[in-house]
Design a protein that fits this description.
It is built from 26 helices and no strands. The protein is mostly helical and 669 residues long. Helix 10 runs antiparallel to helix 11 and helix 15 runs antiparallel to helix 16. The protein is elongated, with a radius of gyration of 53 Å. The N terminus and C terminus are likely disordered.
């Protein structure tokens, strides 16, 4: 924009005014500080002296305060430490977090007096943490290394802590219950009070959880108690009491817990208390027949019945690697379910002990006795000497390894089973079974596996009968094994349930009907009331009916009239005692085989006549013996008379008359 004076005009600076005193300076200057060397003279000397005195007093107070400050710091630190100790002692265990540096400082301060409450509390917390860490690290591989570490802690002082830690660890990891029970068994053998306290707390916990219907806690408690019973820490009476309580008023949860408990402890009860074990399973059957529980729980009971038949193969009394306590060292506690229990909850809480140092020394001696620390030095010195002598000795040669685990036998049975199950027909099965490598003396195992497979079927299959028939025709060895198997199974038939018994009976009935085995094996059957059971009678019934269906009744009767078979079946068709004969007749008539009892009926019909004839023969023999005795007496008397006649005739006549009278009396009698 152009200005009126012209386009290129610029603004000019105005001239500065002249420098004189009437105008301010044209440039800024820094202000000058006042002079300090100016002294003001005190007009009043008295006030001056007072000011100097006050200043000196103030400086002296400041110096005195600086000199007293370290003592106050120490006092404050001591008061802080006492406050921390008071806070630590008055709180619950583990309720206060403390930084490691401060904890170390407190430990260093408290170690000056080991009998003080502060030091005891710090050692209590260290004991709690150590026991918890050791219990959480234990497993089946390191249990032997964990035990010395655990005994190195004061378990008498911390038995409440140990019981609480192991119960929490077991509840959170049930599969490790056998390991925890083995650890308790080892400690119980040395310090029984620890095992007793743990058992009482478990029983108390179970009772409390049962009243509250807490299934999870009940299950964990009963599992732990079952394994303590297996380890002989607890008596089996507590297990029976728990089972009776659970089965008294059955519900789905109670039966579930009872089945799980029985699976763990059933093997021990079957071995030590068979009658009580049988009664428990009878109660299970009654609950199953009542049908008041759900199908899921009914199936659990059926599975448990099968586990019992398998003799608890998957649930042994003591698992491998956990049988660590000798029978002589075991300590068993008899705790009952209804008795008053002393759980001693106060052992979980810290309490000041005036005799702390004495008890620590006592436990050190106990620990040395348990772990054998005194003899370690002697052992080390002796080992050095013996090692030199062992170097010169030659190790003896090892003998052949003997397998007592029956691993080869189990593998053989598995091979036979799979071969039978995979065969399409009996010919293929026999062909493959003949290729199985069987050692000498193990032929009976093949026959037993065939019969066991047959018994496991829901109904009898002629597939197995044809296999047995083919084997008996291949070699005499298999026939002898089948005959031996008949004798074995008949003597143990009472161990099998009805379905398996039926299949086994039809299997042997097929073999006899086809003459695969000799009928002479029936000599082990004694058909009377004393030598038979309900199972054996059912077995004979099904076997004879199978034979009658294959042969026909007429052929069956003719076969039993064969002299050899008739002689072998004297126990089956008894003719010795009428009572046994009647029992056999009634039995075979009831199963539809009255035709084979004709000889026994004839014997029973003629039995009275035979008995009378036997009695007459006995009487005749007794009378003949009496007459011979009288004749001998007559001959003796006549010889006496002839000797007397030489003396006098009169006396002889008298003797003759007397003798005649005696003879007459004898004959009349």
């Amino acid at each position: 924009m152009s200005s009126p004076n012209g386009p290129s005009s610029k603004r000019k600076r105005s001239d500065s005014p002249p420098q004189n005193d009437d105008y301010p300076p044209t440039s800024r200057r820094r202000s000058k500080s006042p002079r300090t060397d100016i002294r003001v003279a005190d007009i009043d000397p008295v006030r001056k002296a007072e000011r100097e005195r006050q200043l000196a007093a103030r400086v002296a107070a400041m110096e005195l305060e600086k000199s007293d400050k370290p003592k106050d710091v120490e006092k404050s630190r001591e008061s802080d430490a006492q406050a921390e100790f008071a806070k630590l002692v008055g709180s619950r265990s583990g309720g206060v977090y403390m930084p490691p540096a401060r904890l170390r400082a407190l430990q260093a301060a408290a170690s000056a007096d080991k009998a003080s409450p502060e030091y005891q509390r710090l050692s209590w917390d260290a004991l709690r943490k150590s026991i918890t860490g050791i219990v959480n690290r234990v497993n089946i591989t390191n249990i032997k290394d964990i035990v010395p570490e655990l005994f190195s802690e004061n378990l008498i002082r911390g038995k409440g802590l140990f019981a609480r830690s192991i119960m929490k660890a077991q509840a959170s990891s049930l599969p490790f219950t056998p390991v925890f029970a083995a650890l308790v068994a080892i400690i119980n053998s040395k310090i029984p009070s620890v095992g007793e306290l743990l058992l009482m707390r478990l029983v108390s916990q179970f009772r409390r959880a049962f009243k509250r219907n807490d299934k999870i806690v009940c299950h964990s408690s009963t599992t732990f108690i079952a394994h303590l019973v297996n380890q002989s820490v607890a008596h089996e009476l507590i297990a029976l009491e728990i089972l009776v309580l659970l089965l008294e008023k059955p519900t789905d949860d109670s039966i579930d817990i009872a089945v799980s408990f029985m699976r763990e402890v059933g093997a021990l009860l079957a071995e030590n208390s068979p009658k009580a074990n049988a009664s428990i399973y009878e109660r299970f059957r009654a609950v199953l027949n009542e049908g008041t529980i759900s199908h899921r729980v009914q199936y659990m009971i059926e599975v448990q019945m099968q586990v019992r038949k398998d003799k608890y193969k998957e649930n042994p009394i003591l698992p491998d690697g956990l049988d660590l306590v000798d029978e002589d060292d075991q300590v068993t506690h008899e705790v009952q379910l209804q008795q008053e229990l002393k759980v001693e909850e106060g052992l979980n809480i810290f309490k000041f002990d005036p005799n702390y140092l004495e008890k620590e020394e006592q436990y050190k001696s106990i620990k040395a006795e348990i772990l054998g620390e005194d003899s370690e030095e002697d052992d080390e010195s002796g080992s050095d000497e013996s090692s030199e002598a062992d170097e010169h000795e030659v190790a003896p040669e090892k003998e052949g390894i003997e397998d007592r685990t029956e691993t080869n036998l189990v593998n053989l049975r598995r091979t036979i089973y799979l071969t039978i199950m995979n065969a399409l027909n009996y010919e293929e099965a026999v062909h493959k079974l003949m290729k199985v490598q069987i050692e000498e003396g193990q032929e009976i195992e093949l026959i037993n596996m065939i019969i066991e497979c047959c018994s496991q079927e829901r109904s009898y299959s002629t597939f197995y009968g044809l296999i047995g028939e083919r084997f008996s025709k291949l070699n005499r060895v298999w026939t002898e094994c089948l005959e031996q198997a008949f004798n074995n199974y008949y003597t143990t038939i009472h161990r099998y349930e009805t379905n398996r018994l039926r299949n086994i009976a039809r299997f042997f009935g097929h073999l006899m009907a086809t003459d695969s085995i000799s009928w002479v094996v029936l000599e082990c059957v004694r058909m009377n009331e004393d030598d038979t059971t309900s199972s054996s009678r059912i077995f004979v019934k099904i076997m004879m009916q199978e034979m009658m269906e294959s042969l026909g009744l007429k052929v069956l009767v003719e076969r039993f009239k064969d002299p050899e078979i008739k002689h072998a079946c004297q126990g089956m068709f008894p003719t010795d005692v009428p009572k046994n004969t009647r029992f056999s007749i009634n039995y075979f008539t009831s199963i539809g085989l009255g035709a084979i009892t004709e000889d026994m009926r004839e014997y029973l019909k003629n039995a009275p006549k035979v008995i009378l004839e036997q009695r007459r023969m006995l009487e005749a023999q007794s009378s003949d013996s009496d007459s011979s005795d009288s004749d001998s007496s007559d001959s003796d008397s006549s010889s006496d008379d002839s000797s007397d006649s030489d003396d006098s005739v009169d006396s002889g006549r008298l003797a003759v008359v007397v003798n005649h009278h005696r003879v007459g009396v004898a004959t009349v009698q």
